[in-house]
């Protein structure tokens, strides 16, 4: 539905008014860095001054259902390539150098182009990060991205990127610059303004991926503390309102330059954001306070502003059209008069027909999200989150369904066994999207790998030394396809492993450890994670039962220890969890299991539900760690087991 106020006759690209042929528009695409919808006054925000963006919305079309990925690199890669992350991902902050980008597409459509602001698409990992040597320098250099001109922060190694704000460092048309006393956002908006004012033989395309208002939160030139040179790099969340105001000021400067150059009426302007607001920020809205959700797959991390203006072409109003970050390439190409062919390989869909009031037979009916920002420095705490949604409903591949209209914080999941005709139809529709889109996945460095032996495989574990003594590959008849390892019940193996099925076995000297498993059971009765004790002691176990989709309950899941005084002695079981405290796994859906053992404490998270237990005898020297599966079929797309102290600083407290 679109609510509009018609400004007069609307011309399509190539239509004629009198004797004049409508020329392809200039295009300016602006993307804020870390700003949810609550950050703008035109979306009901009360905390910040955004007069220029509010004016843009008052003269253009405002989207109520534009979505992004929860982190910047994920969204930026999708926007640059028109592909979802499961098809374009190498690692965080790395753009595949073989990619075809929005710059290449617009160049081929006859545009002169420039990009200014934040790059961060090449060589993200610092030297010390595990596996960094495989990725440093691997991404795409700005000169190869299809743009005629560029002025960009973080266009090289992370440790050499310098500041994006006070005393900035940036790469401009091949020259690395640093300027004491300047402010990075001023550098890039001035570069864009100079580009717009130039004489152009072709229509121009400007992509402005802003640095604001991303952390670090420091004073802007309009902040009183800017006058104190020593305070310009002091980080404090109290500076965030000034940063949002300065972001708006930069947008206003670009809009003023379009006016001064006399090209406003033939320029399509789009304002978007790469993810939700920083988690350290709480903003006020007309409906109450909103906590920033950057990094989270909830609306707080993914629901972003989108405002589009083209005077005389786009009616003024509000639309509930669904938009994803992959949609910009096809939309801008159609606006330019050079639409993608009907048969193309991109995931994006053009929303240009909705902009000009036309019916769109290819309208987006859902948004698919494959969210896994690893590998990458500081991204190890994240993991798989796959979902599909429309304006109201959202389904995760672990079976959780949410009515976002009634439950925007995603606190009350509708599980597969909680059925009604309405939710069954929604679940079936969105589940088919997840299945269809996930099948396109291109394996990444974190996917399951296998050894040369067809009956043994080893899953990727990038955080420990692969040559540790005693580390063994996994036994079993496994099939590896598109990054997923699967196994079905085998009578011979079932008997061999004492009616428990094959095991993943890591015989390495773990004491404290952190494990992550993504598993989809199909008739698989039980999953057991064990850290075996050495020379007696207490073995720690998580015994997870699978709950069929029909909702029938079996024995409860448990967190237990088995205590014995010497090897081989039959050990009594101590149940550490209460009955019903540990969630069941859901059959035929992906389930994410995370377990940490630190000292005498264990923290287990299953599909977002966390259980803590403590037992004074968990903290015993351990000999090996393994995961076992009872008979049935199951699939694994990730398994890793990591020794402490790598994870011993993780904060598992409720956020």
UniProtKB/TrEMBL annotation:
CDD domains with a match to the protein in the record: sulfatase_like
Keywords: Hydrolase
Molecular function, one GO term: arylsulfatase activity
Highest taxon of the lineage: Bacteria
Record InterPro entries: Alkaline_phosphatase_core_sf (IPR017850), Sulfatase (IPR050738), Sulfatase_N (IPR000917)
Signal peptide segment: none
Gene3D superfamilies: Alkaline Phosphatase, subunit A
Annotated ranges, domain Sulfatase N-terminal: 25-337
Family to which the UniProt record says this protein belongs: Belongs to the sulfatase family.
Record-given protein name: Arylsulfatase A
Organism whose genome encodes this protein: Rhodopirellula sallentina SM41
């Amino acid at each position: 539905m679109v609510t509009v106020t018609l400004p007069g006759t609307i011309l399509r690209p190539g239509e004629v008014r009198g004797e004049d042929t409508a020329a392809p528009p200039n295009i300016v695409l602006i993307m804020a860095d870390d700003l949810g919808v609550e950050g703008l006054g035109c979306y009901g925000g009360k905390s910040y001054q955004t007069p220029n963006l509010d004016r843009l919305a008052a003269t253009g079309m405002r989207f109520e259902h534009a979505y992004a990925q929860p982190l910047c690199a994920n969204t930026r890669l999708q926007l640059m390539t028109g592909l979802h992350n499961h098809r374009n991902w190498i690692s965080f902050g790395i753009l595949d150098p073989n990619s075809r980008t929005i710059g290449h597409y617009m160049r081929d459509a006859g545009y002169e182009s420039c990009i200014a602001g934040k790059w961060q698409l090449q060589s993200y990992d610092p030297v010390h990060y595990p596996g960094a040597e495989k990725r440093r320098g691997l991404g795409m250099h700005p000169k190869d991205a299809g743009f005629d001109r560029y002025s960009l922060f973080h266009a090289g190694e992370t440790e050499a990127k310098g500041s994006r704000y006070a005393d900035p460092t940036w790469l401009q048309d091949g020259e690395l610059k640093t300027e004491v006393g300047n402010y990075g956002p001023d550098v890039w908006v001035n570069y864009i303004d100079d580009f717009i004012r130039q004489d152009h033989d072709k229509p121009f395309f400007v992509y402005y991926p802003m640095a604001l208002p991303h952390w670090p939160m420091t004073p802007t030139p309009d902040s009183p503390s800017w006058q104190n040179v020593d305070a310009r790099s002091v980080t404090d969340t109290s500076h965030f309102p000034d940063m949002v105001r300065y972001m708006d000021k930069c947008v206003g400067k670009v809009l003023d330059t379009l006016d001064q150059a006399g090209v406003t009426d033939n320029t399509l302007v789009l304002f978007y954001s790469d993810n939700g607001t920083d988690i350290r920020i709480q903003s006020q809205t007309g409906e109450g306070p909103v906590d920033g959700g950057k990094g989270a797959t909830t609306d707080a991390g993914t629901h972003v502003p989108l405002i589009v203006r083209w005077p005389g072409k786009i009616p003024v109003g509000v639309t509930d059209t669904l938009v994803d970050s992959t949609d910009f390439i096809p939309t801008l190409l159609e606006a330019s008069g050079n639409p993608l062919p009907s048969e193309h390989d991109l995931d994006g869909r053009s929303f240009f027909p909705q902009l000009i009031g036309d019916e769109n037979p290819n309208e987006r009916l859902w948004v698919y999200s494959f969210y896994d920002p690893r590998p990458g420095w500081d991204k190890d705490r994240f993991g798989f989150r796959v979902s599909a949604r429309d304006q109201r409903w959202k389904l995760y591949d672990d079976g959780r369904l949410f009515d976002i209209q009634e439950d925007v914080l995603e606190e009350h999941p509708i599980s597969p066994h909680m059925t009604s005709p309405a939710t069954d139809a929604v679940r079936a529709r969105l589940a088919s999207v997840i299945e269809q889109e996930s099948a396109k996945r291109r394996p990444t460095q974190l996917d399951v790998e296998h050894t040369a032996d067809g009956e043994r495989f080893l899953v990727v574990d990038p955080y420990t030394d692969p040559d540790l003594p005693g580390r063994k590959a996994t036994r079993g008849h496994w099939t590896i396809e598109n990054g997923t390892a699967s196994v079905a019940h085998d009578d011979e193996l079932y008997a061999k492993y004492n009616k428990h099925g094959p095991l993943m076995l890591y015989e390495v000297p773990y004491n404290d450890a952190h494990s992550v498993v993504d598993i989809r059971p199909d008739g698989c009765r039980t999953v057991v994670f064990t850290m075996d004790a050495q020379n007696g002691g207490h073995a720690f176990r998580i015994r997870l039962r699978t709950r069929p989709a029909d909702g029938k309950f079996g024995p409860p899941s448990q967190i237990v220890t088995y205590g014995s005084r010497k090897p081989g002695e039959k050990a009594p079981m101590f149940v550490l969890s209460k009955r019903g405290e540990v969630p069941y796994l859901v059959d035929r859906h992906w389930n994410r299991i995370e377990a940490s053992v630190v000292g005498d404490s264990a923290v287990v998270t299953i599909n977002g539900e966390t259980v803590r237990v403590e037992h004074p005898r968990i903290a015993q020297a351990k000999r090996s760690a393994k995961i076992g599966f009872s008979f049935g079929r199951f699939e694994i797309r990730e398994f890793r087991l990591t020794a402490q102290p790598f994870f011993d600083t993780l904060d598992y407290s409720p956020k």
